[in-house]
Amino acid sequence: MDNPHRNSQIKANNIRLWVGVISLIVAWSLFTYKNLLHDLYLILIGAFTLYTLFAYILVPIQKNKKLRDSDNE
Q: Which residues contact 42 (CB under 8 A, 6 or more apart)?
């Protein structure tokens, strides 16, 4: 079955991907600039990094791959 919204879904996933990458760069640069890389703040930035890697980078890549593979069938 053809998905009429496939291209917009891929674009939305690409936007999520770039939001995740940019937010990670901004968060790490802010924590590094303010010298907050110790104890509690290091735990917070680590948790934020893991969440962002999963929710904003890994999941959109998997969804885009699935959408492109379904189109090739």
A: none
Please check whether residue 30 is in contact with residue 58, taking contact to mean a CB–CB distance below 8 angstroms: no
d(CA 14, CA 45): 23
Long-range contact pairs involving 3-7 (C-beta distance under 8 Å, separation at least 24):
3/67, 3/70, 3/71, 6/67, 6/70, 6/71
What would the DSSP string read from start to end of 4-21?
TTHHHHHHHHHHHHHHHH
The runs of H, that is alpha helices, within the chain are 6-33, 39-52, 59-72
Angle at 69 between CA 24 and CA 4, to 5 degrees: 90
- Give the tens place of pLDDT for each residue, 17-70: 999 999 999 988 988 888 877 878 888 888 999 999 999 999 999 999 998 888
